[in-house]
Amino acid sequence: MTSVIGAGAFGTALAISLARDGSEVTLWARDAAQVAAMSATRENAARLPDLGFPDALKVTGDVESLPEGPVLLAVPMQKLRAALQDLPDFGARPLVACCKGIELTSRLSPVQVIGDVRPGARAAILTGPSFAQDIAKGLPTALTLACDDDDTGRDLQTTLTTANIRLYRTVDVPGAEIGGAVKNVMAIACGAAIGAGLGESARAALMTRGYAEMLRMALAIGARAETLAGLSGFGDLTLTCTSRLSRNYRYGLSIGEGAPFDPSVTVEGAATARALQARARAMRLDMPITDAVVGLIDGSRTVKEAMTDLLSRPLKEE
Ligand SMILES: NC(=O)C1=CN([C@@H]2O[C@H](COP(=O)(O)OP(=O)(O)OC[C@H]3O[C@@H](n4cnc5c(N)ncnc54)[C@H](OP(=O)(O)O)[C@@H]3O)[C@@H](O)[C@H]2O)C=CC1
Ligand SMILES: O=C(CO)COP(=O)(O)O
User: Fold this and answer.
1) ipTM of model over 0.90
2) Which tens digit of pLDDT belongs to each residue from 154-180?
3) Which of 142, 171, 200 is the last residue of a domain?
4) Cα torsion for 190, 192, 193, 194, to the nearest 10°?
5) Are residues 161 and 22 in the same domain?
6) Which residues surround ligand 2 with Cβ inside 6 Å?
7) Which helix (H) or strand (E) holds 123?
8) For NAD(+), which residues are the binding ones (predicted)?
9) Would you state the torsion angle of the CA atoms of residues 65, 69, 71, 72, taken in this order, to the nearest 10 degrees?
10) 113 φ/ψ angles, rounded to the nearest 5 degrees
11) pTM beyond 0.90, yes or no
12) Range of the domain at 10
C-alpha cells in the first residue's frame, strides 16, 4: 500500500499508474474542495483532465488515515519543508521525495530536507525523465530510485515499479538529485535560446555545456559520474530541454519570446537556478550557464547579452 502526498500532476500520475496495476494507493490532497471533486468525478480535472482514476485509487483529505507503506512526497521542491512540517510523523514508513531542485533558503537537496525535518527517516528520491501525462496515459517510462540504504531501495524498487514505469536503483542519492535539479535550469536556458530564435545548434551547445556544469557540481559533491550519464542526469536533461511539454522549457521560451508566463505554474528551475548559483559560488565552481539563467530570470540580462557573455569567455579545452 502506497500513499501519495500532493495531488498535483506528478503525484496524481504516479497514483494512477500504481493503482492501474491493482496496488492499493491513497492520494492525499490538502484542499477539501479538490478532494470532493476528485472523489466525485474520479479524475483530477485541474492537472490531468480526462485521465480517469482506476478503482484501486482512493482519494482522501484525512492525512491521519493513510495506510502503512511508503509515502511519496509529490510537492514542489520549495514547498517540501512546509509540507513535511504540516504532516504527521510517519514513523518507520519510507519517505520518497518526488521533486527536483535545491531549496533556496538552505541550498539543501530533497533528501537532505527530509533528513533535516525528519532526522532518522528512511528517505529516498524518485526522479528521471517522465512527463506526468505520459505516466498517467500508461506510456512507457524509465526512472531512477535512489536510496542510500540499499535494502530499503530494493523494497521501494519492487513496490513502485509498475507496468509502465521501469525503475532502476542506485545508492548514489546526491548524483540522482543533482541531475534532476540542474536539468531544469538548463531547460530554461534552452527554451530561452529557441524562443529568441538562436537555433538548434545553440540549443545543442547549451545542453552539452549544461551537462558539463551538471557533472562539475556532481563530482564536487561526491556523486558518481555514471549516475549523471543515466536517467536522472543525461536522460532528464534530454527530455526537458527538447519538449514543449516541459514547463521549465516553456518558461524559457516565454523569456526568449518576450511573452508573459502564468506565475502559478510550477517551474522548479527558477528558484533552483538561484540556489545552484549560490552553492557554486560558495564552492568556487564555474557555472556560466547557470549564471546566465539567473540573469535572465531576474531581468538583468537579455537573451542576446547572456549569449554574448557565454561566447566571449576565455577559450579553453573541452
Ligand atoms: N509534472 C511532471 O510532469 C513531473 C513533475 N515532477 C516533479 O514533481 C514535483 C511536483 O510537481 P507537479 O506535481 O508537476 O506540480 P503541480 O504544480 O502540478 O502540483 C503541486 C502539488 O503540490 C501541492 N502542494 C504545494 N504545497 C504544498 C504543501 N505545503 N503541502 C501540501 N501540498 C502542497 C499542491 O497543492 P495545492 O494545489 O493545494 O496547492 C499541488 O497538489 C516537482 O518537483 C516536479 O519537478 C517530476 C516528474 C514529472
Ligand atoms: O521533470 C520533468 C520531466 O522529467 C517535468 O518537467 P517540467 O517540470 O519542466 O514540466
Assistant:
1) yes
2) 999 999 999 999 999 999 999 999 999
3) 171
4) 90
5) yes
6) 100, 129-131, 184, 187, 236, 239-240, 246-248, 268
7) strand 123-127
8) 6-11, 132, 247
9) -130
10) -65, -45
11) yes
12) 2-171
